[in-house]
Batch of 3 targets.
Target 1
Amino acid sequence: GVIVYKATGVGVSANEAIAKIVGTNIDNIKKLDFHELASWKKSGLLNKAEQALATNSVVQCQIHIDPSGLY
């Protein structure tokens, strides 16, 4: 599944696959702010996203997130 966020953290777009994985609908997914997601904080993804935004560069990492903790 795919979720697209603005740099501010606001969800812009999501597909049906991510909605199904998380167990909600696209509108609810788009209401999520990645700065507030416990799963992003716990996994280190928030730090990587903030690093990419601060340096305006690609930051690669491998993470595993339990989708049930996303919403």
Target 2
Amino acid sequence: FTFVSKCPQGSFSSTGNNLFSCTLCPVGTYQNLVGQTTCFGCPLSTPTTLSLGATSVLQCRTPSGKFRNEF
């Protein structure tokens, strides 16, 4: 039995399974699932995030700071 830790929400790795090689999602992306190999890009209408490691599309915003639901 081998314990494999998955990357948490807001991060990714090439395998998705090695907790020690997880990288935070870059600004402008998010990942709402665990154990992933990529991050999702924010929508064109809200193309950025405030920081690395966003865990929801709701953290995407416009460059002027408006969230998706503030239009």
Target 3
Amino acid sequence: RKSTSTLSIRSKPAGAEVYIRDYVEAGDGAEWVYLGKTPLEPAAVPAGLLVYRLVHAGSTPFEGTSWTVEG
């Protein structure tokens, strides 16, 4: 059983689509998992190092990383 954590993301403007994937598996072509739209209030995600992607119409997609801990 994989441990879980939570992730909250806000954007300006609101309404950006939020996707995640495992950082380690990203190099192996891991698929993006859709979480919802911003503001994203605590969403359950796998614990560990994640890559997140924000996509909003009319804007360049943004990617970042987040280390989430169990709990």
